[in-house]
Amino acid sequence: MERRHFRIHKHIVALLLAGALLLYGPVARAQVADSLARLLAKGTEDTSRVLLLTDYAWEINETRTDEAEQKLREAVALAQRLKFLRGEAAAWNGLGVVEELRGNWEQAQSYYRKALSQRQSLGNINDITNTLNNLAVLYEMSGRLDSAIVLHKENLRLLEPLNDTVRIARAHFNIAGAYMEMGLYNDANEFLTQARMILEARKDLDGTAKVYTQLGHVRFELDLYEDARLWYRKALKMREQQSDPVRLAEAYSDYANALDEVDSSQTAVSYYLRALDIWKQLDDLPGQSNVFINLGDAHKHLGNYSIALQYLRLAEKICLDLDDKSSLMETYNTIGDVFYRDGKYKNSLEYVRRYLQIARKTGDEKFLQGAYKDFAEVYSAMGNFRKAYEYRALYDEVRYKNLNEKMIGFFAQKEALFEDDRRKQQLKKQEADLKLQQSELARSRTELYASLAGVLALLILAALLFSRNRLRARANRELAAKNDAIEQERRRADDLLANILPAATAAELKAHARVKPVRYESVTVMFTDFKGFTTIAETMPSEILIAELDECFSLFDNIMHEFGLEKIKTIGDAYMCAGGLPMANDTHPQDVVRAAIAMQCRLQILMEQKKAAGKPLFEMRIGIHTGPVVAGVVGRHKFAYDIWGDTVNTAARLEQGGEPLKINISETTYQAVKAQFPCTYRGRLSAKNKGEVAMYFVEYER
């Protein structure tokens, strides 16, 4: 019944190096505002006053919003009287910021649009990109992520010819942030890498630390906790060199979160305490509350239930004082889990009820769904299976509803991005066609003048026509050759698509330009991983390492074909496949176990050959679990067939909890294959969102 309390600071760097970034502290900004006020008191009615009014409003917009609006409207009126279009656009842009601070999204968008239209008419790229960035961030904050990405990319297109590396890095970062919000982590990672290259070259410690943090968040969201820990560690080292206590406290918490997930809870506690010291020095109660919850969670993992409750009571008091309902629900959820693990089921039920009541009042679907699941698990542990079934049914109903809504929204956003790219391509084609028509018109005009030049002109025209016919014949031959080449490329593309997607999925993608997600009630998922791969990788040249991996994975690919399984993807040295999709069948548990035995046996034969040649040896762990998944295609430029759900996460945890040369399967898979394969019970494993999972080793002859 565990839910991780993980405080990702959305938009922490969405305004990285932005034109709207606050450059001064509160005291310095007040001093600047006073200086501007004195200049305004003795200023004349000219264009300089328009700019002074706008600058003064900017300095006070967070603390005196109404006065800032009044000054900006005065700037608009004066700029219109003076016909000072650039000053008017700056004032409209400032009014957009004011309304954004008030939370009036539609009004803010209207003002930004006015500023953008005027700035585009003036053609100043710096001004245009500033407003584009403001409008894009506004769309992000209001949940219109597809529109935000379109504007951020347009911003990037305008900035690249200027070679303004600072703002180019910001644009890459903002695009990555929007992709993260959409759950498109591969796309986010690509743009974060671009921002990282620029900021590292500039030796920008603050910006680079922010990028490292987001790279850690990407991996954390993908459950790659060890990789996330490495990126958080890099960010933390940079924060320790700077004098920003808030960012340092956040870096300590991020690093501790990753440590807690890789079973280093005791070490995580020490970093949480460092963060807590900073928040106490800053007298920041929300920061303290967040750390108290994380400390409770970490001590829960260590089995220190009384200590965990002490921290969680401190968090509860702060949440109640601040009326922070979201953190209060997180606190009650964690307290309920502590009691559940300690066997105090009635106490656990009480705290699940508490956060369920808040979730119903606030309409929080995430906690509502979590409460139903927690009720089901607690009642099941108490032996009240009727109640457990009722709440499990409620949980499934809410879960699938949320999943469907999320997937519908996801594909709608992807479709909007696809449509935007398609419109741009059509526009380019129309421009090319227009140029061609203009060229044809000019040529026709020349031919008309030539026909009126008399006999001599007719002779010249005849020669020209003869030459043109030769050119046309050659052009026709070239066109035919190009058509043949295009047809060959189309066949190659079809073959490539068939190689990376299941046949039915590839056909649906070609027919409709998208693939609807499909839920499978029973699929068997396998994860493999090589023991000590990181250590081996550090001792080998990259090209040899890749060749060794390719040899192993090619061997696995042949086994997938042999047993009718679907290869899903590889991540580093990990290999993921599944049985029972895209064509459902009843034999997928047995097929996957047979394939796992073949993979272990044939890999051991290959390793004997490597040992004789004096090459490094790989030993493989395998984890297998059977259950429901959702399958679909993700990506816009590089399609990828993938699967999601607790079944995938549980298979991955079984692989992590396995041993080299062994095949570790779950209780669900064991029940399906125990008649065909001898298995040995080996205990239970704690799996995220699954509680305790029974594990078995499949016995086979090596």
Task: Give a quick rundown of the structure.
The protein has 702 residues and is α+β, with helices and mostly antiparallel strands. Among the domains are: 284-447, Serine Threonine Protein Phosphatase 5, Tetratricopeptide repeat; 518-698, Nucleotide cyclase, GGDEF domain (Alpha-Beta Plaits, 2-Layer Sandwich), CATH 3.30.70. It is 71% helix and 9% strand.
Describe the protein.
The chain is built from 26 helices and 8 strands. It is of the alpha+beta class and 702 residues long. Among the domains are: 284-447, Serine Threonine Protein Phosphatase 5, Tetratricopeptide repeat (Alpha Horseshoe), CATH 1.25.40.10; 518-698, Alpha-Beta Plaits. Strands 1, 2, 3, 4, 5, 6, 7 and 8 form an 8-stranded mixed beta sheet that branches. A hairpin with a 5-residue loop joins strand 4 and strand 5. Helix 5 (105-122) packs antiparallel against helix 6 and helix 8 (165-182) packs antiparallel against helix 9. 39% of the residues are buried.
Ordered list of secondary-structure elements with their pairings:
Blueprint: H1 26-41, H2 47-60, H3 65-82, H4 85-102, H5 105-122, H6 125-141, H7 145-159, H8 165-182, H9 185-201, H10 205-221, H11 225-239, H12 245-261, H13 265-281, H14 285-302, H15 305-322, H16 325-341, H17 345-362, H18 365-382, H19 385-451, H20 455-500, H21 503-512, E1 518-530, H22 533-538, H23 542-563, E2 566-571, E3 574-579, H24 588-612, E4 620-634, E5 640-644, H25 646-656, E6 663-666, H26 667-673, E7 679-687, E8 691-698
Parallel strand pairs: 4-6
Antiparallel strand pairs: 1-3, 1-4, 2-3, 4-5, 6-8, 7-8
Helix pairs in contact: 1-2, 2-3, 2-4, 3-4, 4-5, 4-6, 5-6, 6-7, 7-8, 7-19, 8-9, 9-10, 10-11, 11-12, 12-13, 13-14, 14-15, 14-16, 15-16, 16-17, 16-18, 17-18, 18-19, 23-24
